[in-house]
Structure formats: C-alpha cells, structure tokens
Amino acid sequence: MKLKLKPGMASRPRQVVDRLASAMRRKIGLKKLDLRGKPVPLRKGPPEALLGFGRFVANPRRFGGFVSGPALAAAITAEIDPAAGPVLELGPGTGVFTRALLTRGVAERNLILVELDPKLAARLRIAFPQALVLCCRAESVTPDLLEGRCPAAIVSGLPLLNFPDDAVERIIAATFAVSASDAALYQFTYGPKCPVHKDIRARLGLSAQRSARVWRNVPPASVYRITRS
Ligand SMILES: C[S@@+](CC[C@H](N)C(=O)[O-])C[C@H]1O[C@@H](n2cnc3c(N)ncnc32)[C@H](O)[C@@H]1O
Predict the structure, then answer these.
(1) Domain that holds residue 28
(2) What is the pTM of this model?
(3) What is the CATH number of the domain that holds 165?
(4) How many CB atoms lie within 10 A of CB 50?
(5) How far is CA 44 from the centre of its chain?
C-alpha cells in the first residue's frame, strides 16, 4: 500500500492520519461514512462528461466535442458478434463505447484500445486492465503493435469530421490492413453522410451503409458500417 505524503505534511499529523485512513479504506474496499452513517463514494476521478469536457478544452480538434450517450454506444456496438474475435476500438476516449462492448459480451481481453491522449490512455489501462491499450495514432497501428491479434471488427469514436481527408484515408487504410478480411468498421457521425468520403472508399475498395440513426443522442448521430466491397 502506497502512502503519498506532500512536503511539510510530517508536521501535520492529522493530515497524515487522514491520508493513511483513506489509503487503507481504498485497499480493503471500505467506504467512508458521512455524518448520518451513509457511505460516501470513494473518489475515482472526474465523471465522464466533465473529463471529456476537460480533454476537449485541452485539444478541441482531437477530442471532437461531445461524450457519446448510452443510446449511441448501444447502436454502434449492436452488430458486434462477441464470439467473432478481438475488437479494435479507435479513440475510446472516456470509455463509453468500450463499456458498451463489454455489455454486448465482448471479453475484456479481446479489446484493443487505441487512444492518442496519454491521460485518457492511462485511465483506460486502469479501467480495463485485461485489454490491450495502445497510446498511439490510429493511423500507425501495425500487426506487431497488435501483438498478432487480428480484429474481427472495428468501432471508431474518432471525430473524423474534424480530420483532413488524407488523415482519414491513412486511418481507414491502416485499420483495415490489420483486420480480418470480413471485418466491418462502425463509425459514428453527426453529419448527414458517411464521414469517410466516397472517393476514399473507392480508392480503398470499401463500401458504406448507414446501420443506425440515433435521435436520442446529443446531438443526434448516425452510425455507418464500412466493409470491403
Ligand atoms: C470523441 S472522443 C471520445 C469518443 C468516445 N466514444 C466518447 O464518447 O467518449 C475521440 C477520442 O479520439 C482520440 N483521438 C483523436 N485522434 C486520434 C488518433 N489519430 N488516434 C487515436 N485516437 C485519437 C481523442 O484523444 C479522443 O479521446
């Protein structure tokens, strides 16, 4: 059990005792009680929406803007077959789609999470210890990085509308190159059409169909299924 003491704390025994007590509570999973004896939840970091907002402020283009709601998370994972094999998730961010994949029945050890933001990647490693979490650009995935796993499906939380076309093309090409030949990539968008432009799809031999429209999301979104033609 680690007890972190700030400089000068040794002269304030009350704070040392408080820190030691909360470290012990964390260790044995005990909840702190409030004055009425009700358990006070242990601090696990900021809630998702707040964390997402913080990362958006830090890098608006990269984060995109909104943390997806549960209806979009359910729609983007609806066609995933948990028995088919590993699932590659691009830009998992706060883990909204990741949790929906687990709810769908995908085993945590079958998740490959590719997140560029080191803070979010570190959080994902803690939340999903059995998943393979790669802190790198989606466009740089290789079979080596994936440790030989061949994704049966891809779920993307990347805000593709914020990216230039050449970056979108590199991401889509790289992810299909490491995935099974019949793998489908599920991509959300707030726009009226598939965020992977038809010229890019034609160059990469891909086709796209809208698999869901999600009105109960803020803002309303669509999900596209992109497969090899
Ligand atoms: C819209 S956010 C998170 C999506 C998540 N489904 C959610 O609703 O919380 C997109 C995420 O993609 C990550 N990202 C952006 N560009 C990336 C890239 N090239 N490779 C991997 N991750 C990237 C961002 O850091 C961010 O966490």
Answers:
(1) 9-40
(2) 0.79
(3) 3.40.50.150
(4) 12
(5) 17
